[in-house]
Amino acid sequence: MLGRKETERTAAVRAGGGEASMSIIGPGMNIVGDITTDGTVRVEGRVEGTIRAGKAVIVGRGGEIIGDVATQDAVIGGRIRGTLVAESRLELQASSDIEGQIRAPEQHLLLEEGARFNGQIQMGSGGQTAIPSRTGAENSTSA
Fold it and tell me: What is the pTM of this model?
């Protein structure tokens, strides 16, 4: 029986469904600092800093990010103040409130009715998609 459970767990990890693949910032939790992961980050609390996630960033209705986000896929239902870069897909839910800059591919950008966005948006595959470094973020320019 132990061997079977270990085999199932190993298969799940190989398939990308491992236990460590999702990091959760729960309600009432406040993180000050940068977060970097190869997996997914779900924010239901508050983060002040940059989030870099290899797979996805999910911001729940009560979640708030004061800083930049860089990921493949993003589903935003909460509040972001900063630059949001989604390389593959971006979904702004009706409860989302974004203030800053968004970069995402036009064919995979979903904006629900009621979503709030104040800032600049760059759609398409052209241009720079990486988040600028903090040292020159205020005066940086894109190619």
Answer: 0.75
